[in-house]
Design a protein that fits this description.
The protein is α+β, with helices and mostly antiparallel strands and about 230 residues long. Among the domains are: about 110 residues, Immunoglobulin-like (Sandwich); about 30 residues. About 20% of the residues lie in helices and about 30% in strands. It is built from 3 helices and 9 strands, in the order H-E-E-E-E-E-E-E-E-E-H-H. A 5-stranded mixed β-sheet has the order 5-1-2-9-8, with no helix packed on it. Strands 3-4-7-6 form a 4-stranded antiparallel β-sheet, with no helix packed on it. Strand 8 and strand 9 form a beta hairpin. It is elongated and about 140 Å long. The relative contact order is 0.11.
Length: about 230
Amino acid sequence: MRLLFGSIGLVCGLLAGGATFAAELRDVRIEHLEGEDRVSMVVTEQVPLAVFILSAPDRVVADFERLSMGPDVALANLSGRWVSAVRHGMHAGGKLRLVFDLSGAANVDMSFDHLGSGGVFVLRLFSAQAPVEAPVPQRSDALPPSQQDEGDPNATPEDARAAAEAAAEALIRSRIGAPGTMGAPPDGFRHPEPIPPPVKDDGWRTLPLPPSMLEESEPIREPEPPADTGRPLY
């Protein structure tokens, strides 16, 4: 019975003072880099680590398994852009828990850098941005100021798109001119003459030609019929 109570007292003492493991947390540092906090936790051996984010208040929790707190680790004065304070304690199952109190909502990214037999757990804390909204269609600056207006404030996106297309068409017409107003043709330009419709050839008949060809060539004469020689034609 005395041995049983002694064992219970030893277990309670371990739970109260924290279990001792071979792996130790040797150092914790916080660096502020380009809008984010970089938390480096140096350990003598890589152990399982679970990291999660809590709110109300905002904080990041890191639970280490089979890890003891080193005697020279100082957490009292640690802070950064997002981290306002660091707390630690033993959690259920003998886990070493570090709590990083935050000044606002943040995202976290975890990695591990090997260093000899141990390494460094790295937590990157950065801003938790809200989802970016779709950009609102803006008025085009391609049109001259005289052709731009403020538009109807109650217009729908379809109305704005139709107005932009109409304005673009007006701009094109103002630059190239309306149909038929492109200016006089250059010197030497000659409009092509229309091609006459096809004519059925039913014998000795002159086919119509364009006037330009008739002016530059001799008129086509109908051939004389063959003379009657009295011989049969085969």
